[in-house]
Amino acid sequence: MADDKLKTVANKVEGIADEAKGRLKDAAGGLTGDLGLQAEGKFDQFSGMAQQEFADLYEEGEGVVEKAVTFVRDKPLLSLGIVSVFGLLVGWLVFPRGKRS
């Protein structure tokens, strides 16, 4: 679990660094009139922001999974009932009973 937190923080830091690098490239391209460098900078900015957002979503997902595990551990019979009803509904939708002659 601690390794996951460390990887998430590392991804965020890498995303921040990529975004900053992209901003510098964008500014340098704007000053020199190099459209290629400017486009590369914008791509790096977008890549860094996407990496940061992915790390945030990963953290949120871990929190949801932890809540679900705690719920199942605290209320196993209710969890079994919920899963059973869900399974019956999915089975009914996927395999509807047809008319038999």
TrEMBL record:
The chain crosses the membrane at residues 77-95. InterPro entries: CsbD (IPR008462), YjbJ_sf (IPR036629). SUPFAM superfamilies: Hypothetical protein YjbJ (SSF69047). Residues 11-61 form the CsbD-like domain. Keywords: Membrane, Transmembrane, Transmembrane helix. Belongs to the UPF0337 (CsbD) family. This is General stress protein. The lineage of its organism: Bacteria, Pseudomonadati, Pseudomonadota, Alphaproteobacteria, Acetobacterales.
